[in-house]
Amino acid sequence: MIEKVLLKSKFYGSLIGVLIGDCCGAPFEGQLMDSGSKLVLKNYLNKLEGPFFKAPYKKFTDDTALTICVADALLDSKGFSQKQLAKNFVLEYYKDTRRGYGSAVVDVFAKLRATKMADPTGPAYAQFGGNGSYGNGAAMRVTPIALFCANSNKAHLMKLVQEASLVTHTNVLGINGAILQALAIRQCLQLDPNETLDRKKYLSELKEDIVILEKNNDADLDSNYNAYEKQLNAVQLLLEGDVEPSDENVLNMLGHSTEALYSVPTALFCFLRCTSGSLKDKDQRSFRDTLEYAISLGGDTDTIASMACALSGAYFGDAAVVENLLKHCERSEDIRKIADQLFSLLN
Ligand SMILES: *[C@@H]1O[C@H](CO)[C@@H](O)[C@H](O)[C@H]1NC(C)=O
Ligand SMILES: *[C@@H]1O[C@H](CO)[C@@H](O)[C@H](O)[C@H]1NC(C)=O
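Above: inputs. Below: predicted complex with 2-acetamido-2-deoxy-beta-D-glucopyranose.
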């Protein structure tokens, strides 16, 4: 059992990770990350980590906005419900529509609003000719659920993640991506960051759960029945290689798109790649490396960096984060308050 003080710092770390990955990754979304852009990225992060300057804060995007909505739904005095979550999403979206939302999810929000959330999963089920979305939107906002379930069993966590996903993402690949990210955060919460991370063990535990999950799903599915298992095998191959894999190799094997299948395993790889060895003195380096590496892969940079940093923060706790980096992000104070509130729900 992890002691309380450490667990609380992990609550801070994971939510701070969501925010920082999102805010710092957003300016690079969709950019070609050649060696010049990578240098720009490094200098940019160095500047944000350096002495505090009175810069305009970094605005967060949909990743953090919807993560806060999920946390609020879990903290709701009447208990979590899909209807309340749908309502939170709709209120948040119409409060500020310019946070990089995809057009598909905007369509869901519009239908939810028009029907006053009468059927909170109906609009999501109707999307893409009934296939539902397999984007990474459910995975990117899942951190509060992993925290909320820190002391409950995996089955409860997985069920709650599924319920929360269905409001916008009903395709099995979208849901399983969220479950994978939640299970990965759960494992990070349980580990002692002073001990060397056993990456092989960490991955094989995740894979065990995913294999069972995909077996239980296969009634709905065709060729995707072991999609995430294959991606986790690819993560393992990349980690075990003798040489540092090239970006091209990583992208060919894992991807960096807005699809959950081609971004959740990528974020996991970023975290594991930058978190090896005994890290007693290098905590802050490792979180920063995860952030920089995730963004350097390009593509859906804000979401991949956000998910990767949520893992790093859940593993190390908030001591791994340079305070000035956090101070440049919008609502950094509120993020700590939300972590406090979620922590106080644990018994
Ligand atoms: C729904 O999924 C099927 C099977 O994968 C695919 O053939 C079809 O094009 C999809 N429909 C839409 C509208 O995306
Ligand atoms: C980890 O190591 C640091 C420095 O040695 C120490 O201050 C801290 O209490 C340790 N944390 C845990 C969880 O053992």
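The pocket of 2-acetamido-2-deoxy-beta-D-glucopyranose (ligand 1) is lined by residues 128-129, 131 (CB under 6 Å).
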